[in-house]
Design a protein that fits this description.
The protein has about 200 residues and is α+β, with helices and mostly antiparallel strands. The chain has one domain: YbaK/aminoacyl-tRNA synthetase-associated domain (YbaK protein, Alpha-Beta Complex), CATH 3.90.960. About 40% of the residues lie in helices and about 25% in strands. A hairpin with a 2-residue loop joins strand 7 (about 160-165) and strand 8 (about 165-170). The longest helix is centred in the N-terminal third of the chain and has 34 residues, at about 1-35. The termini are far apart.
């Protein structure tokens, strides 16, 4: 009789543990589903290792500086994707460090255009399928040429938008370039440090 009582107590404990494990697994799966974006799925299909980092979005401050602080990376390693249009090539992506400013003349030269301008904000979503603060060269509505500032190569990892505000993809620069087919070149200028 004692053995039967001990067995049923053990079985109840195991059943309780199984329920906890199942609930925890469901929570993990639903969290992973929330974080997964088209950009992340593309990287998975290519067999590229990456990490998704979520952060709370501040609609009033979508700056790279704000995102860098929230994902725990230096500003130089958080990269922004801008949408531009060349006079010869049409729409293209320019990818540069959050601490940099796009050099339109350098981008034009690298992309084979005489001139390049960033597209008006109202055109970004219709062209890419992404909204400001969530633009990425991965999984856009159409495939556009991608031009990446050469500084990217000096880092072990960089963060780019995952295609949704509040989620960044952290990956190796070589993997990003492989996934996007990006062309490297000097397309950015950097702010001089303020005198002390």
């Amino acid at each position: 009789m004692l053995q039967l009582a001990a067995f049923s107590t053990q079985a109840a404990g195991l059943l309780c543990l199984a329920r906890l494990v199942r609930r925890h697994a469901q929570e993990l799966c639903s969290r992973a589903a929330i974080m997964m974006t088209n950009a992340a799925r593309i990287l998975e299909r290519l067999g590229i290792r990456f990490e998704l980092r979520e952060y709370e979005v501040d609609e009033k401050d979508l700056s790279a500086e704000n995102v860098a602080g929230k994902v725990g990376l230096p500003l130089d390693q958080v990269w922004k994707t801008l949408v531009a249009r060349g006079d010869k090539t049409g729409v293209l992506f320019a990818v540069l460090s959050g601490s940099a400013t796009l050099d339109l003349k350098a981008l034009a030269k690298l992309s084979g255009n005489r001139s390049v301008e960033t597209v008006p904000l109202k055109e970004v979503q219709p062209l890419t399928g992404y909204i400001r603060g969530g633009v990425t060269a991965l999984g856009a509505k159409r495939s556009y040429p991608v031009f990446v500032d050469e500084l990217m190569e000096i880092f072990d990892v960089v963060a780019v938008s995952a295609g949704a505000r509040g989620t960044q993809i952290v990956l190796a620069p070589t993997d990003y370039l492989r996934a996007t087919g990006g062309t490297l070149g000097a397309i950015a200028t950097f702010r001089a440090a303020a005198p002390k």
